[in-house]
Amino acid sequence: MMYDLDASGMLEKLQGIESATIIVSNPCFELWYILHFVNQTAEISSQQCIEKFQKICKEYKKGFISLKLRERLEDSLDKAVSRAKKLPLYKNPSTSIYLLIDALEKI
Q1: Separation in Å, CA 67 to CA 5, 9, 21, 24
Q2: CB under 8 Å to 40, separation ≥6 — which residues?
Q3: Considering its fold, how many domains does the chain have in total?
Q4: Contact 42, 94 (CB under 8 A)
Q5: Where do the DSSP E strands lie in 6-106?
């Protein structure tokens, strides 16, 4: 499972699960999308992430990815992984979604 860390106490709860690989995005999943197009190293709120991504990809609506946007995200996946790996894990901003991508690529 993947979780946003914008819920209070979520990280601590997840870290209490033994033998789990924690895949989170802090503050929210839209950060992962942002990293496909630009570097984001300054702290950012969930609302700011959504607004920033909507400026980058005007067709984005929360909870919906169009085919065109999906293709754009796929084309820039390597950039997102590279940028995400440079962010400090569990801090704002950070995402460990690249762990899932790396695991899938090994299959």
Answers
A1: 27, 35, 29, 24
A2: 31, 34, 52, 83, 93
A3: 1
A4: no
A5: 23-26, 94-95
Tens-digit pLDDT string for the chain (107 aa)? 666 677 788 888 888 888 778 888 999 999 999 999 999 999 999 999 999 999 999 989 988 999 999 999 999 999 999 999 999 998 999 999 999 999 888 98
Look at the block and give the residue holding tokens 């996946």. 77
* Spatial separation of the C-alpha atoms in residues 89 and 16, rounded to whole Å: 16
Q: What share of the chain is helix, strand, coil (3-state, %, to 5)?
A: 45, 10, 45
Answer whether 27's CB lies under 8 Å from 45's CB.
Answer: yes
Amino acid at 49: C
The domain containing residue 84 runs over which residues? 2-106
